[in-house]
Amino acid sequence: MSDAPKTVPPAASPAAALAEPTQRVRASWTAGVVGVNWGINTVFFAPINVLIGLQATAIDAPNKEAILSLVTAFGAFVSLVANPLSGALSDRTTSRFGRRRPWVLGGALVVVVALLIMSGATTVAIMVAGWCLVQAGANAMYAAIYAAIPDRVPLEQRGLVGGLAAMGQTLGILTGAAVGFVIAGNVPFGYLLCAGILVLSVLVYVFRGDDPALPRDAVGRFEWRKFLAGFWISPVKYPDFGWAWLTRFLMFVGNQLTIVYLLFFLTDVIQHPDPAGGVLILTGAYAVTVVITTVIAGKWSDRAGKRRVFVAGSSAMIACAAVIMAFAPTFPAALVGAVVLGAGFGAYLAVDFALLTQVLPSSASRGKDLGVINIAASLPQVIAPTLAFLAVTYFGGYRTMFIVAAAIGLLAAVLVYRIKSVP
Fold first, then answer.
1. pTM of the shown model
2. Ordered DSSP codes for 256-320
3. What is the pLDDT of residues 96-115, one digit of tens each?
4. Cβ distance 385 to 259 under 8 Å?
5. Which of the two ends of the chain, N or C, has the fewest CB atoms closer than 10 A to its terminal CB?
6. Which domain holds residue 29?
7. How far is residue 372's CA from residue 77's CA, in Å, rounded to a whole number?
8. Is residue 220 part of a domain?
């Protein structure tokens, strides 16, 4: 990627904000996108993987799984609304700072306040309230930063930029695991550390992001009925969008099932002497392979001009990782599973995002449409913990949970070929 200035239409022109991009983005712009993704995923995964689990154990150890599932499920319900709503509102934002940057900055401020609430939570009710607020702010950021990619990145560069954005996600997951390890059980400090990381993560995009303003006269009159109706995207009228949504949903359910009870799996099944340290090791192995495969697969798919074969192959790899965890419940096998999972999910994140941008119905509603797509990533946060709880508690334990994850991943690999407009 070049840092040379690019020529864009004047910021006051609707074409600058709504036209299909043709100029390659600068490295500094991409670094800003990667940074925001790093921060968002740090504040997602440090609590999900470690902090909420430790709080749940401190509040009611015998029911820690149920508390974790309850808190994450409520937060996921909030994300189902916050992501597409924020995306749709960012589509209509006419700030002189652009359509997306105000939502990244505003969402970050909300998350910081929410993390402060979480740091002092001593009851399940406060945990639920704080986590819902985290989800609201973080999903506003998430919707805006992902809409910025098809706003500014040309089609032939989206696999690479999507891969680098996915690398930011992975760095956030790794940072979240590191936070859980270094705090040595000091949960309030962990939340404060997440807040500091989030503030740092948004600085480059907020101050260097290329985000042309949308003139007021380019936005039609606001009508509630029309606005709300826009969230329904007919799978009959846009079948490829519908299949892309479904395969993404299945992939995220399978992935979430594999990782949601990782701390408890290491504690109760593998009986690792340092579960938080084990989470860090597994997440580190996962992160390294994700970073490698996101960049390689994204760039490779750009050059090949193909997306579906990469998505199908990565789905199958995620299924293999779940099978390994199901039938070899030892830490060395879990380490192999983490590497396979990272390789598959890294390739998936990079290529599937590029595929998704090619099936969006309209350039004027990218934020809203990607928000609807992101429901497919948020809804599994409700579905997967519930499935995991039922599998572990009533239907055979962790092996059943991982087998279900594998079956779902394989189904996603098959269904991606129902998308016809993308090779």
1. 0.78
2. HHHHTTHHHHHHHTS--S-HHHHHHHHHHHHHHHHHHHHHHHHHHHHHHT--HHHHHHHHHHHHH
3. 899 999 999 999 999 999 99
4. no
5. C
6. 24-207+234-418
7. 14
8. no
